[in-house]
């Protein structure tokens, strides 16, 4: 049961990661659809999440905090000062007008976090998620354990998600499921498949995450999953920043000598706040020509490493050039970078 991260082309991913909020992002939890708990320190509240977001520089409110604004439904007025809208297990359908408002909100550069893990909320959540080509499915997975660079994460009976478009980020689970219509009745698991329990994607100028588990946000589970929760909001903050792992040089030139060997070095530094795992992936053309040591690197914040690339003479070429992919796993997000390698054979 491993984390499967979906990475798109590098032009999409260089803007994914924002460990520091440069300017205050306004996070608003919607109460109109039935959610309450932002100020509750009970086990099922989300006050610890709200507190941590504020420490990170976010401004966190719920719609009940708004004055002189009708918050019985989602309106332009309600979203005027909102950057990230959070909806958790809605208990009502969303009107046509609300769908237009939220669609415009995201299209114009804001973000939506839609969370649903109650089978009785699926119909309501899907009235909104379907606007963006995504749906929660009424399937019971039971407890799901995912291993990642953040450690083992425990998802509590998450609902699977499907999307019309390939997401930028996704958490995949391989296992069994059963049809689930009543939260109090646990069904028999009758089929096996691969399920997405988190999907995040760009929509217009904004971003959306669908998350099939609300428990992971709650106070009783928050401390064990704090890094994961912060990464969710890092993605949604949608700031354009450079990658937070640096590489030098940008390209390598290796020339073999009379021993028929050549060597070059790549310097890697982790400048972000999270542990990362870096995998250097050779193309087939270089498979028998270049040896990378180490190929997989795990770096803590601020840690540096040197990678050795050893080239071996090949009589079939006078020189050869290709691209090596650097896949960096931040725990929730996998980012792809690339550098060129040219090997000259003497």
Describe the structure.
There is one protein chain. By secondary structure, the protein is α+β, with helices and mostly antiparallel strands. It folds into 2 domains: 228 residues, Rossmann fold; 100 residues, Immunoglobulins (Immunoglobulin-like, Sandwich). Helices cover 15% and strands 38% of the residues. It contains 7 helices and 21 strands. Strands 2-1-3-4-12-11-10-6 form an 8-stranded mixed beta sheet, sandwiched between helices. It is elongated, with a radius of gyration of 23 Å. The protein starts with 9 loop residues before the first helix and ends with a strand.
Secondary-structure topology with pairs:
Blueprint (H helix, E strand, L loop, with lengths): L9 H4 L12 E4 L17 H9 L3 E4 L13 H4 L4 E5 L7 H12 L3 E5 L6 H8 L4 E3 L2 E2 L3 E5 L2 E5 L5 E3 L5 E11 L11 E13 L2 E6 L7 H4 L3 H12 L7 E4 L2 E5 L5 E10 L5 E6 L8 E4 L2 E4 L4 E9 L6 E11 L4 E11 L2
Parallel strand pairs: 1-2, 1-3, 3-4, 4-12, 14-21
Antiparallel strand pairs: 5-9, 6-10, 7-8, 10-11, 11-12, 13-15, 15-19, 16-18, 16-20, 17-19, 20-21
């Amino acid at each position: 049961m491993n984390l499967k991260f979906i990475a798109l082309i590098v032009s999409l991913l260089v803007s994914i990661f924002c460990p520091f909020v440069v300017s205050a992002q306004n996070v608003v939890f919607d109460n109109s659809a039935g959610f309450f708990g932002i100020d509750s320190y009970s086990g099922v509240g989300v006050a610890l999440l709200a507190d941590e977001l504020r420490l990170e520089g976010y401004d966190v409110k719920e719609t009940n905090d708004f004055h002189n604004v009708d918050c019985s439904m989602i309106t332009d007025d309600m979203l005027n000062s909102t950057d990230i809208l959070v909806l958790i297990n809605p208990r009502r359908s969303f009107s046509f007008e609300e769908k237009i408002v939220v669609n415009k909100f995201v299209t114009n550069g804001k973000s939506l976090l839609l969370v649903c893990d109650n089978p009785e909320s699926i119909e309501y959540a899907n009235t909104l998620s379907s606007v963006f080509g995504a749906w929660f499915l009424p399937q019971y997975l039971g407890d799901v354990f995912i291993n990642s660079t953040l450690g083992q994460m425990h998802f509590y009976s998450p609902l699977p998600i499907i999307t019309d478009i390939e997401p930028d980020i996704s958490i995949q689970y391989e296992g069994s499921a059963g049809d689930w219509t009543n939260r109090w009745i646990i069904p028999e698991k009758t089929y096996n498949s691969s399920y997405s329990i988190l999907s995040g994607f760009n929509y217009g100028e904004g971003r959306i995450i669908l998350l099939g588990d609300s428990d992971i946000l709650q106070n009783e589970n928050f401390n064990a999953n704090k890094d994961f929760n912060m990464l969710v909001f890092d993605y949604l903050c949608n700031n354009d920043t450079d990658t937070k792992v640096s590489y030098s040089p940008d390209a390598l030139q290796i020339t073999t000598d009379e021993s028929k060997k050549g060597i070059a070095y790549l310097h890697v530094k982790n400048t972000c706040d999270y542990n990362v795992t870096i995998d250097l992936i050779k193309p087939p053309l270089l498979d028998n020509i270049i040896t990378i040591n180490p190929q997989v690197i795990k770096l803590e914040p601020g840690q540096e490493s040197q990678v050795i690339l050893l080239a071996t003479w090949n009589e079939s070429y006078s020189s050869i050039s290709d691209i090596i992919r650097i896949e960096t796993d931040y725990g929730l997000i996998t980012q792809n970078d690339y550098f060129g390698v040219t090997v000259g054979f003497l």
